[in-house]
């Protein structure tokens, strides 16, 4: 039995979970999330907890069991607390500026500024010119937007310049040595 899949999901107060066949909808103080779950996995609500069950021990059922439980749990956590990813910018003259909560301007050494628009449900904060915070209720979307920002200028291995996740360690290379 999946250790992750068999643990129940506690639903905090103020969160409403609706299960309509394969669709699970979670409404909370921060918003609403909806996801379609695989047909073989069932989700049921018992006294303020959600239980994810699988019909048999086949490989596909086992692999979807823990995944479905984690996805539903992320929905519950997202509508109550939300998710955030922090990025840091390293490099001389590299900086970020929030034009609005949904638009970001990056100066990353190109001949032009890079403008990034946030999808619905995601917002940007720039507490310092070299720090970006991506916030939202959908964990998958927040992570994808952060990855897209990082992909504009990935940290390079020689000087370490670029956009990286906060706390990310970049493997450095020695570079060329002069001829002697």
Can you lay out the helices and strands and say which pair or pack?
Blueprint: H1 3-6, E1 9-10, E2 16-20, E3 23-28, E4 31-36, E5 42-46, E6 49-53, H2 59-80, E7 83-90, E8 95-100, E9 103-107, E10 114-117, E11 122-128, E12 131-136, H3 139-152, E13 162-165
Antiparallel strand pairs: 1-6, 2-3, 3-4, 5-6, 7-12, 7-13, 8-9, 9-10, 11-12
How does this structure look, described?
With 180 residues, the protein is α+β, with helices and mostly antiparallel strands. It has helices spanning 3-6, 59-80, 139-152, and strands at residues 9-10, 16-20, 23-28, 31-36, 42-46, 49-53, 83-90, 95-100, 103-107, 114-117, 122-128, 131-136, 162-165. It has a four-stranded antiparallel beta sheet with strand order 11-12-7-13, covered by helices on one side. β11 and β12 form a beta hairpin. The longest helix has 22 residues, at 59-80.
């Amino acid at each position: 039995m999946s250790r992750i899949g068999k643990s129940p999901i506690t639903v905090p107060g103020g969160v409403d979970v609706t299960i309509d066949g394969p669709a699970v909808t979670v409404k909370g103080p921060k918003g609403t999330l909806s996801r379609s779950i695989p047909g073989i996995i069932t989700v049921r609500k018992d006294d303020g907890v959600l239980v994810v069950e699988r019909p048999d021990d086949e490989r596909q059922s086992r692999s979807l069991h823990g995944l479905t439980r984690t996805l539903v749990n992320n929905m519950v956590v997202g509508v109550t607390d939300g998710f955030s990813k922090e990025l840091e910018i390293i490099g001389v003259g590299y900086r970020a500026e929030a034009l609005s909560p949904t638009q970001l301007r990056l100066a990353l050494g190109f001949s032009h500024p890079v403008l990034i628009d946030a999808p619905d449900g995601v917002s940007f904060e720039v507490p310092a010119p070299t720090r970006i915070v991506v916030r939202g209720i959908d964990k998958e979307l927040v992570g994808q937007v952060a990855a897209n920002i990082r992909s504009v200028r990935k940290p390079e291995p020689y000087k370490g310049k670029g956009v990286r996740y906060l706390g990310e360690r970049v493997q450095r290379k020695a570079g060329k040595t002069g001829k002697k």
